Amino acid sequence: MNEQDIKGFFADEEDLIHDDYLFFTFWFETAEKPEHAVAELACELSTAQWKRPGIDEDYRPRHAAKVVHLEILSEARRPSFMTSFAKGDHFYRGLVRLAYPQINIGPRLPNLLTTVCGEGAFFCKAISAVKLVDIDFPASWLADFQGPRFGIEGLRGILDVYDRPIFLGVVKPNIGLDPKSFAGIAYESWIGGLDIAKDDEMLGDTTWSPLIRRCREVGRKRKEAEDLTGEKKIYLANITDEVDRLRELHDLAVREGANAVMVNAEPVGLSALRMLAKHASVPVVAHFAGIAPMTRLPYYGVSSIVLTKLQRLAGADLIIVPGFGGRMKTEEEEVLDTVDACTEPFGHCKRSLPTPGGSDWAGTLPLVSEKLRSHEFGFICGRGVFNHPMGPTAGAASLRQAWEAIVQRLPLADYAADHRELEVALEAFGGNGVSEPPKKAVAPAGAVPLVEFLSMVNR
Amino acid sequence: MNEQDIKGFFADEEDLIHDDYLFFTFWFETAEKPEHAVAELACELSTAQWKRPGIDEDYRPRHAAKVVHLEILSEARRPSFMTSFAKGDHFYRGLVRLAYPQINIGPRLPNLLTTVCGEGAFFCKAISAVKLVDIDFPASWLADFQGPRFGIEGLRGILDVYDRPIFLGVVKPNIGLDPKSFAGIAYESWIGGLDIAKDDEMLGDTTWSPLIRRCREVGRKRKEAEDLTGEKKIYLANITDEVDRLRELHDLAVREGANAVMVNAEPVGLSALRMLAKHASVPVVAHFAGIAPMTRLPYYGVSSIVLTKLQRLAGADLIIVPGFGGRMKTEEEEVLDTVDACTEPFGHCKRSLPTPGGSDWAGTLPLVSEKLRSHEFGFICGRGVFNHPMGPTAGAASLRQAWEAIVQRLPLADYAADHRELEVALEAFGGNGVSEPPKKAVAPAGAVPLVEFLSMVNR
Predict the structure, then answer these.
(1) Which of A151, A168, A306, B222 could be bridged to A380 by S-S, CB 3.0 to 4.6 A?
(2) Are B176 and A267 within 8 A, CB to CB?
(3) In sequence order, what are the beta bridge partners of B136?
(4) Residues 273-292 of chain B whose Cβ lies under 8 A from any Cβ of chain A
């Protein structure tokens, strides 16, 4: 492209009709002149050839992606990663915001993904490293999506729980349990105070635990737990499977006793999640399994913020994202950004319940709630409930006790003196029990400024 | 895990019933003892907690992933990429082969993807970097999949072309053309000798080019081109869209005049591709759009070989993979491996036509055919056909002429002396016309050992 061609891929955002565009933000690296590199990126993402040979026309005003903001962050002598294709000895790294005409794709997730994750962005000659960091969706685009049907309010309504986090547990052992034993363990956790007992993301409709039998057994136990506790409970069945079975498995699961369903959003595909959410009569949960191969690196791939937004857009009522703590290999800021993606204003779309997951247990609850500065989250445990030395009932109770301590602004250790389940959890997991807790996780709640946090709690 | 626990995740491959397992190969990096790290990987990928507390049982023999091969390739003082989570000053890099019990997942793509791309592999505490490099599928697992319905033979049968590559062209401009103009351009390319005129991967069912109108216009022109040339032609319609529309769009496209359909496999999801292939009455094509965010880095993500195998398994009759040449940022060996993944023995599954794509034109055909040492491939051009200075008819003709030169063992430049379309292509694209051709691309065919290649051609 010559200088004149390049100009066709730049615009002033003020001059554009905002509702006609999507806005993509890419982090990029180039050894070329940054203005040229981002023009090439815009070109490859949209109308790479903007006229027919021999005809006087220009598709760019209508169809081209346009650079509306360009910012150089740093310069370096080496590329972010070495391949034989990253040539040069001086690299610019920066952010570019592109206005992308909605009419090129329409309100369709696979076509959006093709655009932002496809050949245009990731095979752009001038770009040596690239990461899609965000997408802004005008309300005009969101309007074609249903978004979450239940959202946070709907989920809270089903559980009749409004003033605390929702407690989820992943029944363990995750692989190998027969349905009857599985149901027994779920029951134990419910009567201890768990709201949602769920299948592990790796547990599907298997020969040794067919979904129909699991839902039947667990559904029966769910009713027993509700009767005993006087609380509403949810059994969240993982129906991750071939996409042409999802609606049928939803119907089967709900008929037999599940009252929420989960899919692993990347493995089934975001569009299949949307299809399921349109069909579902119960809350739909999206799990992060499968996102890490493209989200982990700071200089390459797709950010988890984008994928979380898309899961919300596709209709997930609760979104499990990689949470705090070393094991989840996710920077704290990224966790907080994905939580925001679940709850920030998003056209007409309801809020999804953000559920940062990863090796949590009673002792990590003060830190998680402090970081999120809210009670509007799901708190999900596996071994922290189901490998509690006193059993799942005690494991679940330890979570509720930890929350009571927070509300009473007491250090967990103090509250544990009168609460045996919490005390045993602190003993068992405080050291090396459930991976390592995040730093400060068992710091007493009184040591952190909970006043401010608690004053923010909407009751 | 203690030493005894770790032993439960190792096995001798000879002792296993091969048909009960899948075999995953991961490249990995760890700052821990490699045997411990891969045991943890196997554990997290399968039954992370292999017994219930207080019960004397062990799920590992039946459900655990087992390390059957471990090989250290190198050692380094720094991790492959710096994050706050990769701690240590001595890293081992190696390959591990895991036997994974099929009963954990069953013959389901999303459940397989959850396992190999999910929390177990990518959030394994001991592993600082990981890439899934291959999966071996025993025939017992493949048996549940249909695989390609047409395969190479079926495609060749439709086109009645057996002794040369299949020539595909991506109609350009890709975005913005109205259906009638689009059809006219496709027609021009067909009468020049193209076999398959196709939609760009970014062109879906849009307001300005509705699929129904495009298929109608192009379908009509296809019949005209067949009548004029006496050759069979294919219009390959891109039906990438929300998954609940795929079958309906297939039916619409075929009814109106398309005789093959394409989806972008990652954006719609591999399972949706499988669903479509089960339903389709015409060949199904998978495009690589969306794979790069997870395939590009040598030390992280998922290899394109795995994704290609899965596209074949899902039923793609033709697979477009990133091809040769600098612009595609793909090492030659990887291109050849993905081509092999399309054609190597794979249970009962038919061969998919490998179609390495990326800035090809007449001048790159000798190199591509020499590298592939076969005529069993699709050769796909965009601007190399549609931006030919003499128009798409000449662009398509230049491809056929290039093949004639190869068969006659003549340098392209020599053959071009009597073939104006090829001559103009060499002039226009030989320098900088269509990105850069691969090195040696316009080297005369006579300069490479074509004798051996041509003797391998099955006629």
Answers:
(1) A168
(2) no
(3) B23
(4) 274-275, 278, 288-290, 292
Strands (E), A337-401: 353-360, 378-381
β-bridge pairing B378-381 and A301-302: unpaired
Measured between CB atoms, does A389 come within 8 Å of chain B? yes
Minimum-distance CB partner of A271 among B243, B270, B358: B243
Amino acid occupying residue B147 = G
Predicted structure pTM score? 0.94
**What are the distances in angstroms from CA A233 to CA A211, A213, A230, A262?**
19, 19, 9, 16
Confidence of residue B442 (pLDDT cuts 50, 70, 90): very low
| CA contacts within 13 A on the Cβ side of B213 | 12
Q: Which residue of B has its CA nearest to A64?
A: B175
Give the model's pLDDT for residue A431.
Answer: 65
User: Is B292 close to A122, i.e. CB distance below 8 A?
Assistant: yes
Q: Which residues contact B57 (CB under 8 A, 6 or more apart)?
A: B51
The interface predicted TM-score of the complex, written ipTM, equals 0.94
CB-nearest to B206 from A103, A122, A205 is A103
Residues 225-244 of A with CB under 8 A from B: 240-244
* Radius of gyration of chain B, Cα coordinates, nearest whole angstrom: 24
**What band does B87 get if pLDDT is binned at 50, 70 and 90?**
confident
Q: Which residues of A35-64 are buried (b: 16+ CB within 10 A; e: fewer)?
A: bbbbbbbbbbbbbbbbebeeeeeebbebbb
DSSP string, A225-267: HHHHHSS--EEEEE--S-GGGHHHHHHHHHHHT-SEEEEEHHH
Secondary structure letter of residue A10 according to DSSP: B
- Closest in B264, B272, B331 to A243, CB measured: B272
Strands ordered across the beta sheet of B21-30: B66-76, B91-101, B21-30, B127-136, B301-302
Question: A8: closest CA among A73, A57, A55?
Answer: A57
| Residue in A192, A216, A194 with CA at minimum distance from that of residue A205 | A216
pLDDT of residue A453 exceeding 50: no
The domain segmentation of chain A, as residue ranges, is: 3-142, 151-456
pLDDT for residue B125 is more than 60: yes
Distances (CA, A) of B83 to A172, B12, B44: 30, 35, 21
Residue with tokens 């995740």: B9
Residues of B in contact with A173 (CB under 8 A): 47-52, 59
A51 is catalytic: no
As assigned by CATH, the class of the B3-142 domain is alpha beta
**Chain A / chain B CB contacts < 8 angstroms:** 290
φ and ψ at residue A246, rounded to 5 degrees: -65, -45
Q: Roughly what angle, to the nearest 10 degrees, separates helices A392-407 and A179-192?
A: 30
Band of residue A455 on the pLDDT scale cut at 50, 70, 90: low
Q: How far apart are CA A440 and CA A455, in angstroms?
A: 22
Query: Angle A365-372/A332-343 helices, nearest 10 degrees?
Result: 60
Contact A290, A189 (CB under 8 A): no
The DSSP element (H or E) to which A25 belongs, if any, is: strand A21-30
CB-based contact B173 A275, cutoff 8 Å: no
The mean per-residue pLDDT over the stretch A218-226 comes to: 98
Tell me which chain A residue has its CA closest to the CA of residue B178: A59
The strands making up A66-76's β-sheet, listed across from edge to edge, are A66-76, A91-101, A21-30, A127-136, A301-302
A250 carries an active-site annotation: no
**Of 3.30.420.40, 3.40.47.10, 3.40.50.970, 3.20.20.110, which CATH number belongs to A151-456?**
3.20.20.110
Treating both helix axes as pointing N-terminal to C-terminal, what angle do A304-314 and A332-343 enclose, rounded to 10 degrees?
A: 20
pLDDT of residue A197: 98
Q: What is the mean pLDDT of residues B80-85?
A: 81
CB A411 within 8 A of CB A447: yes
- Joined together, the tokens standing for residue A429 give 């997991």
